[in-house]
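Handout, page 2. Input:
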Amino acid sequence: MFSRIGNYVKNSAENIPIWTNVYGIARSLMAGTLALVLIINPAELIFIPAQGISEFPQCTGNISLFCFGSNDYLTLNIIRWIVVALLVVIASGWRPRYTGLLHFYIAYSYHEAAMVIDGGDQVHLVLSLLLIPITLCDPRKWHWKTFQPIEITNNYIYLYMISLTVIYLIRVQVSIIYLNAAYAKVTKEYWINGTAIYYFLNDYMLGLNDTLSMVLTPILETQFIVVLTWGTIVLEFLLFAALIAPKYTWKYFLIPGLILHGSIALAIGLYSFSTIMFAALIVFLRPFEQKFQFSMSTIRQNINNISLFRKNNKKFLSSEVNQIKVEK
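Output:
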């Protein structure tokens, strides 16, 4: 059995690269999202008192970066901008081996010290922690490039095996997130009776804005609301089941998952949460060896394909029009 595992790892190391821009994009999405949150929101909105909690930021029992210095908003805002600069470096993809641990520490610092956090910040914390072994093994200068050595050495196989194991752990973790979300819904009556989406979208705090409400309310007041509510539960169970799906089917789970979280962002404004979940879905359901193509040659090829399609379409329409004229 161990020899079979060894052969599998060796064959994978020779043919399937791990260090590509797939997990790089996930890191950039997470770091960029937190940077944007800190840019838009001053310390006065992030570090605030709450009922029963007089200490802010919350520095008891943690070593958050935001707890270094005096407890005043001037100092917190200075630290906030330092953190933003560090997050920009992380999001740029420079030296993941050095910035991976820093990424986790910043995610931890924000999660522990800030009063206003959501589920996306928790996912960010966990993913940045789990990605540390992969980043420590990553030999690249930029996480946008693909690394595949000419010669497969024992040292490379060890690093590859560690990273591959962590990838499986991350996939299990993300699938459990969706299992937990789906299970929590089926235990609530308003989800089972199909009305939960209606009440969420009409909530005073998180509901639709006036424009979307005017457009979508006629739909939400029909029986279609049951389809939306139950469909959310079914999709989350399917995303959990994607853990054991064949690799060639992953894209059929990834796209609906992205649409789900994109809809959440547009409907109730949870943009940072949805972006973090985009990153989680990419790590979960995008094979690392299937890197994203962003080269200028690829862009030019796509533009040429569109131009060619338009020309052929015009020729087709022109021939059809001429044929009609002849028949008349």
